[in-house]
């Protein structure tokens, strides 16, 4: 069925001034597409003018709605459109509850425009973190950032990252950055927002010249993110050097309320700590009598020197041997990084962490 120029019973007014356009449509076609149109065309929502139902959609750009209407009426595919337009179609199809189109746009973005998504990572994150129910695209973009964090945090557009997107990243355990790095990037992001408040000449380099207003605005800016910093991973000398300087009273005792994370267990007098997820990760490999499990969240944490603890994460290319168990020994982290060779006896040789 082609789009109607006559014999229509629905007029759709799309966009905001100065970009407003009217589209004609059939109620029978729209009703069959989604619950959104079914509700919009109900008696309760209906805004009639000479027997024509009028629907207003100020949140959608006319160009995007034209493509959506083409898809509804003639099944026009979206293979020839750009990544940016595909993302706009995804958002609009979610609002209009066009589930098939949303799934199509999501797949199209992953298959055809991953490089574009990653090169525009800030814009991609700002949008997709609001639509986590698009799980395939959501996980696709977040997993890229987790594996390549510096592509985001060292980018010139990092300051434009929305708070919701930043929180989305900090809430996850898979971000491959040391906690002190995450703190530094949070401060960098917070300071960049001060310029949005028309506060000039504000940087880490001239922190001794900051006023109380500088500190208070920075505190308010990053207050929702601070509880997500796992401060127990940060050595004491970094806390003195890189955290206390942002406290109005530098002589004050600072107490951190750290978020709940996976439970860990002290396993020997050398203070090596490992996550309890060892018992929840499924074992999939087989080598003689040894079973391996793949995970990206495994780590070894040594606090032999309490002033300078060491955190070793599994190497990305070695995740398939992150945890090993055997009938006669184990558990082991990696092939030999930390291994129980018999009851109460441990060996350690760095290899996979």
UniProtKB/TrEMBL annotation:
Domain BTB span(s) in chain numbering: 8-76
SUPFAM superfamilies cross-referenced by the UniProt entry: POZ domain
UniProt-listed Gene3D superfamilies: Potassium Channel Kv1.1, Chain A
PANTHER family, A to Z: BTB/POZ DOMAIN-CONTAINING PROTEIN 19 (PTHR46965), BTB_POZ DOMAIN-CONTAINING PROTEIN 19 (PTHR46965:SF1)
Protein name as it appears in the record: 23029_t:CDS:1
Annotated organism of origin: Cetraspora pellucida
């Amino acid at each position: 069925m082609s789009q109607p120029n006559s014999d229509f019973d629905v007029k759709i007014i799309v966009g905001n001034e100065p970009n407003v356009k009217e589209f004609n449509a059939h109620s029978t076609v729209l009703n069959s597409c989604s619950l959104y149109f079914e509700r919009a065309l109900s008696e309760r929502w209906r805004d009639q003018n000479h027997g024509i139902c009028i629907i207003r959609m100020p949140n959608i750009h006319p160009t995007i709605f034209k493509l959506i209407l083409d898809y509804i009426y003639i099944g026009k595919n979206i293979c020839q459109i750009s990544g940016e337009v595909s993302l706009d179609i995804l958002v609009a199809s979610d609002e209009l509850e066009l589930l098939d189109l949303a799934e199509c746009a999501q797949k199209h973005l992953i298959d055809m425009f991953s490089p574009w998504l990653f090169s525009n990572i800030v814009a991609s994150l700002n949008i997709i973190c609001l639509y986590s129910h698009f799980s395939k695209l959501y996980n696709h973009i977040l997993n890229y950032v987790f594996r390549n964090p510096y592509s985001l945090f060292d980018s010139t557009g990092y300051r434009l990252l929305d708070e919701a997107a930043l929180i989305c990243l900090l809430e996850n355990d898979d971000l491959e950055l040391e906690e002190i790095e995450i703190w530094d990037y949070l401060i960098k992001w917070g300071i960049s927002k001060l310029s949005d408040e028309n506060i000039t000449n504000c940087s880490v380099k001239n922190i001794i010249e900051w006023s109380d207003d500088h500190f208070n605005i920075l505190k308010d800016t990053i207050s929702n993110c601070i509880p997500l910093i796992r401060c127990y991973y940060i050595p004491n000398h970094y806390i003195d050097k890189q955290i206390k300087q942002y406290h109005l009273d530098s002589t004050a005792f600072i107490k951190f309320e750290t978020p709940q994370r996976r439970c860990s267990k002290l396993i020997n007098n050398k203070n090596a700590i490992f996550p309890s997820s060892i018992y929840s990760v499924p074992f999939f490999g087989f080598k003689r009598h040894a079973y391996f499990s793949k995970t990206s969240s495994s780590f070894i944490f040594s606090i032999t020197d309490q002033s300078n603890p060491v955190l070793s994460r599994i190497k990305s290319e070695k995740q398939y041997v992150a945890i090993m168990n055997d009938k006669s020994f184990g558990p082991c982290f990696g092939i030999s990084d930390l291994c129980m060779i018999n009851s109460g006896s441990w060996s350690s040789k760095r290899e996979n962490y």
